[in-house]
């Protein structure tokens, strides 16, 4: 095993800021973007509903 | 396949592509999560410490997949924009619009992780190096594409204008890729290329390729999900959109 302890793993050989700075921002982007797309999908469904009501009116 | 010919254009219409994309998204998401977890495991617990860079090199498991995706997605975006421009097909233009935000995000990630990798190893977050500068241009091209598309009210005119910008910008992708060979750049050359064996340790390469597949599957899932939303937005007035079960009673 490369890492002796969890602490050693987190320290990342002294490069913690740089390695975790890269991975956490990447994880944040890959988590947030699907949420934004989901919200956009729900808003689009609203648009279709509104369009349908107008059509039926 | 019965005697009749395959209707190649069947999924060219939003109405038939919408359910297909909907079925594909979960599969691509699942593959992305699995290969991503495997890639992170190999990257952090299997790949050894680097002789020169110590642990800093592990940023490669995010930096290179993101950079590859930023270039790959731009070419795919320009392709669909070109098809939409040439054949006036609405769905192609929607696909190009669906790709842009994800491409821009990967470009940002490539620049961000590159800067965080550059600081400890080169001593600088940013230098006006050929590779870095052309990747920054790629970022502005994505932003310009999205801005131009948003700026024009009529969707069809916006498609055409943005498509021209995307096609003009596609020349930048080979410049990025070959920048490390053409100019004397601080950024190192390709460790992995299609023409010769990779100059990387096997476990490091495996981790990186797993993450690249994970980012690729993630990109497919998000782009297909976004194109469905775009289809609803632009086809809200059509019968097929109104009769969707999802729209509800």
Q: What are the SSEs and their pairings?
A:
The complex is a heterodimer of chains A (57) and B (249).
Chain A: H1 6-11, H2 16-56
Chain B: H1 14-46, H2 60-87, H3 90-122, H4 130-151, H5 155-169, H6 172-182, H7 202-234, H8 239-242
Tell me the helix content of chain A.
over 70%
Uncertain parts of chain B: none
Number of helices of chain A: 2
Distance between the termini of chain A: 68 Å
Q: Approximately how much beta-strand content do the residues of chain A carry? A: under 5%
Q: Give me the secondary-structure category of chain A.
A: mainly alpha
Concise structural overview:
The complex is a heterodimer of chains A (57) and B (249). Chain A has helices spanning 6-11, 16-56.
What does this structure look like?
The complex is a heterodimer of chains A (57) and B (249). Chain A has one domain. Chain A is 82% helix and 0% strand. Chain A has two helices and no strands. Chain A has helices at 6-11, 16-56. Chain B is mostly helical and 249 residues long. Chain B contains eight helices and no strands.
Q: What key attributes describe this structure?
A:
heterodimer; A: 57 residues; mainly alpha; rod-shaped; B: 249 residues; 8 helices; globular
